[in-house]
Amino acid sequence: MAKRDLPAGLMSQLFQNTGSSSFTDFVGAYAPELLPRRDEVLATPIGDQVPHATTIVAATFAGGVVMAGDRRATSGNIISQRDVEKVFRTDDYSCMGIAGTASTGLEMARLYRVELEHYEKLEGRTMSVRGKANRLATMIRGNLAMAMQGLVVVPLFAAYDPDRDEGRIFSYDVAGGPYERERFDAIGSGSIFARGALKKLYREGASADDITMALIQALYDAADDDSATGGPDVTRKIFPIVSVIDADGFRRLTDEQVSEYVSQMLDARLIAPDGPIAPLR
To answer: How far apart are CA 242 and CA 193, in angstroms?
Structure first.
């Protein structure tokens, strides 16, 4: 008898006693066809033919963490979308940004959010920050076969840790290895330029406001040197996505709030096109 032909009583028991706090494992056992296929091997790599998300940056401040992402998606040398969203709330105290294959990243972000909600409902508590980072690593590892065909997605994960009263940042390799980063990090095609900007702009103990401005500056520097990273589009009113996480939880800044940071940054760049200069010590 197929699982879906079970009597109502047994069906109810099946859903109440899944045997695992992992939503992905539960769906894989009950209805695996509903999960994205990770074992398919493509005839030819198509990585350059699908839209790719580009640059994500994150940095800690005193009591939390800020994550920001540009809005451009590219297919090869073509801009496929100018206002794609790449930073997502995953629960009340965490978020993730995606770089790489946009469709796979969006799918992973949605499934990961449900994964954390499912765990919280079954266990009656939230997962630890390290547990959240490791659970995301498992999902990335499950995409390895597709990544080898060019459909790579590598997220950046950020969370507020109530036990430490601080923000934490985790990056990953294509095989799912989680690496905790101190102070700041960046992923995507413009990451090398964004990370370089943050090296000169980051200050220990800075406020959320100062860190947000530093990330806006870093994304602008990335867009200045990386064609796949989109800078703020003032005419179309398309601005970076900025999310702040602290003891009060996750909050995404509105476009109006981000536009104020962008306006300050652009006004300063009219005088100093290369941005602020770090003082020599």
So the answer is: 18
pLDDT given at position 206: 94
Q: Block means of pLDDT (10 residues each) for the chain, length 281 residues?
A: 52 60 74 63 52 86 96 86 93 94 86 92 91 93 76 89 96 90 94 95 94 97 93 94 97 97 96 85 64
- Burial of 116-146, coded b for 16+ CB within 10 Å and e otherwise, reads bebbeebeeebbebeebbebbbebbbbbeeb
Q: Does residue 44 carry a catalytic annotation? A: no
Rounded-to-integer distance, Cα 281 and Cα 267, Å: 27
User: What is the C-alpha separation between 187 and 153, in angstroms, rounded?
Assistant: 11
CA geometry: angle 9, 12, 16, nearest 5 deg: 140
Catalytic hit among 18, 24, 44, 54: 54
pLDDT at 103: 82
**The CATH number of domain 45-271, selected from 3.40.1490.10, 3.60.20.10, 3.30.420.40, 3.40.50.10490:** 3.60.20.10
Query: 21 Cβ partners below 8 Å, 6+ apart?
Result: 118, 119, 122, 123
Region of residue 61 (left: phi > 0; alpha: psi -120 to 50; beta: else): beta
